[in-house]
Amino acid sequence: MLRSDIMQTYDVVSYTNEHLSDERLAIALRVHTTVRQILGDFFRSRGFIEVPPVIISPLTDPLNHPVYDPYITYYDEKYALTKSMIFHKHLLVSHFDKIFTFSPNIRIETPDKAETGRHLSEFTQIDVEARGATREQMMSLVEDLMVELVSKVKEKHADDLRKLGRKLEVPRKPFRRYQYLEAEKEYGKDFEAVLSRKEKDMFWIIDIPLQAREFYDREDPSRPGILVDMDLIYPEGFQEALSGGEREYQLDRILERIKKKGQTEEQFKWYIEFARRGLPPSAGFGIGIERLVRYICGFKRIDDVHPFPKVPGKFSL
Ligand code: ASP
Ligand code: MG
């Protein structure tokens, strides 16, 4: 768990006081209010039902990068704080065609993430999943969403954006696509950041290699080692907007993928039980709300959009 010597302390009362009275935070929160409304309305109008979030569970996302894992004792059971509702989404679409949720996630990031300007250890994502959907369908849905969202926010918050000196372009469909391995070859290890700085519009990174993602994204049967998944990347250096993809749903594939990641079946035993009974094919994605608001406002740091930002490795309220 967290060691006290990596926790940075500072005058948190003065910081919070100043931060809460900052006009930039007020603008960010007004934008946040609109963004949540547009997101909810968009998915409701397309037949998605909203489900309540899961905050504690014996089952959560393993993620593909190291975080400190907080657990609580729930009666005598060990429960995790939700890192994402990926598995709950899959169980839900066995029974409901299309779902979304505003899901609070806890990912206690390592302190080296403090200066990225993109990481908060506590954030909310809108997590979306549709039974029988393909990656193509989900990408098209996201493109429609982003076009609508940026247009509406620009119109409604013209004054706010002017005050921030923020010029925002409505993205144009179809968004450009980069294949992960090709982009890596051309632009090097740091290709996501390089491309994000270079591009003027949002773009996709698709076909992510197996070891670069969690076991639940579906491996392309015709291209072993390549997943049928995608990341949406913001331009102007703002980087990742969402991750998503088609899902593994067959028991044997799920077990093989867990093994390939060097993970244990024990950790996912509840999910495996459901896979044994049969899970449907599905696809979905999760959009970080604070990152979206940060992109719209054009802020250097994500802390500026959250009233009580949990910056990795920093004491906070
Ligand atoms: N919920 C996943 C995540 O947090 C995104 C997805 O739906 O694949 O990474
Ligand atoms: Mg991701």
TrEMBL record:
Any one of the GO BP annotations: asparaginyl-tRNA aminoacylation
InterPro entries (alphabetical): Aa-tRNA-synt_II (IPR004364), aa-tRNA-synth_II (IPR006195), aa-tRNA-synth_II/BPL/LPL (IPR045864)
Keyword match Aminoacyl-tRNA synthetase: yes
Residues covered by the Aminoacyl-transfer RNA synthetases class-II family profile domain: 29-309
Keywords on record: Aminoacyl-tRNA synthetase, ATP-binding, Ligase, Nucleotide-binding, Protein biosynthesis
GO MF, one example: asparagine-tRNA ligase activity
Key word Ligase present: yes
SUPFAM superfamilies in the cross-refs: Class II aaRS and biotin synthetases
Alphabetical list of Gene3D superfamilies matching this protein: Bira Bifunctional Protein, Domain 2
Protein name, entry field: Asparagine ligase A
Organism: Thermogymnomonas acidicola
